[in-house]
Design brief:
The protein has helices spanning 2-32, 34-43, 45-58, and strands at 74-75, 82-89, 94-100, 104-108, 114-121, 128-133, 136-141, 146-151, 159-160, 165-168, 181-187, 192-197, 203-208, 222-225, 241-244, 251-255, 260-264, 271-276, 288-293, 299-303, 307-311. It has 314 residues and is α+β, with helices and mostly antiparallel strands. The termini are far apart.
Length: 314
């Protein structure tokens, strides 16, 4: 009888050990991106990141040094749907966000308070938003590679974009519609709209001349594939969003998998800064989907489903 008890005890102990390892693995992957950490070390991406940081330090320093770590996430009360993107409006000193299920544009204060909701008709899914000046915004639908320009009315109401001016940005035939463009960032001063694709592969395009396309003085559009800028930052393994700094034209790249922000020069694509979103021991952001910057240099990030973060400039 004692041998049977010992045997059953060993079986129970083995089961408990398997359960403990499985649970620890789940927590590590679900909340701390453990698989990404392991991949970065095994693939050598961590070493490449260290080399890149050393290079930008030698060329003038990391421009994102000193930013405060993200505030504790603020769940946006009253928000329906899941965040997909965000942009800053310097005229009204507010943020414009996009959510899906249901599809809508939302107005937010800079401390994450929901101010207004504009249900959207004519787009089943919105993956990114950019403020284009005045009350104009650009929206991107990744599945259809479609960029829509529309105006937000002064009072909250349903926004019908069925007949709004739109561009179909089908870059390559055969592209997977489920991995289309998902990020927008606009540099009003230089009239540059940046469009990012998350992965498979990561891509980055820049469209110039869009804001004045319908004016008599328009010289047409210029579309540039600047994905080669990403060759120096392989450690940012995906691009969940893109943003342009309104003061100097630099470009922010948000990586959900790598939990970081990378900053590039807007003219040359050279590295300028990098900021980790999950310092050692901190819990990573669940699913950061959008990034915006205001005219004072503060950064704002929205994460699924309804989380809002603010990073203050030093």
């Amino acid at each position: 009888m004692s041998d049977l008890v010992k045997f059953l005890s060993k079986i129970l102990l083995a089961c408990l050990l398997v359960i403990a390892v499985g649970w620890a693995t789940y927590i590590g992957v679900r909340y701390y991106h453990a698989e990404q950490v392991a991949y970065r070390w095994i693939s050598g991406l961590a070493a490449k990141q260290a080399e890149w940081e050393k290079k930008i330090s030698a060329e003038g320093g990391n421009t994102l040094t000193g930013y405060a770590t993200p505030d504790q996430p603020r769940p946006v009360a009253g928000l329906e749907g899941k965040f997909a993107g965000i942009a800053y409006d310097p005229l009204q000193k507010r943020l414009w966000g996009v959510v899906n299920k249901p599809t809508a544009i939302v107005a937010l204060s800079t401390d994450g308070q929901l101010l207004a909701t504009y249900p959207v008709k004519g787009m089943s899914d919105i993956n990114g938003i950019a403020w284009m000046g005045g009350n104009r915004v650009a929206l991107v639908n990744g599945r259809r590679s479609r960029i829509v320009l529309t105006e937000i009315p002064a009072t909250p109401q349903t926004l019908d974009v069925t007949r709004a001016f739109a561009l179909l940005l089908r870059v390559r035939e055969g592209d997977d519609a489920n991995q289309g463009f998902n990020g927008l960032g606009y540099d009003l001063k230089r009239d540059r709209l940046y469009v990012s694709k998350e992965h498979s592969p990561r891509t980055l395009y820049r469209i110039s001349g869009l804001n004045y396309l319908q004016s008599p003085d328009s010289r047409g559009l210029r579309i540039e594939n600047i994905s080669h800028w990403l060759d120096d930052v392989p450690f940012a393994t995906d691009l969940s969003s893109v943003e342009a700094d309104p003061t100097n034209g630099r470009v922010f790249l948000l990586s959900e998998e790598s939990q970081m922000i990378v900053q590039l020069d807007g003219d040359s694509g050279q590295g300028r800064g990098m900021l980790s979103l999950s310092p050692k021991g901190a819990k990573p952001m669940p699913r950061p989907e959008g990034i915006a910057t205001d005219d004072a240099g503060n950064l704002y990030i929205v994460s699924e489903p309804n989380l809002f973060y603010r990073l203050k400039k030093p």
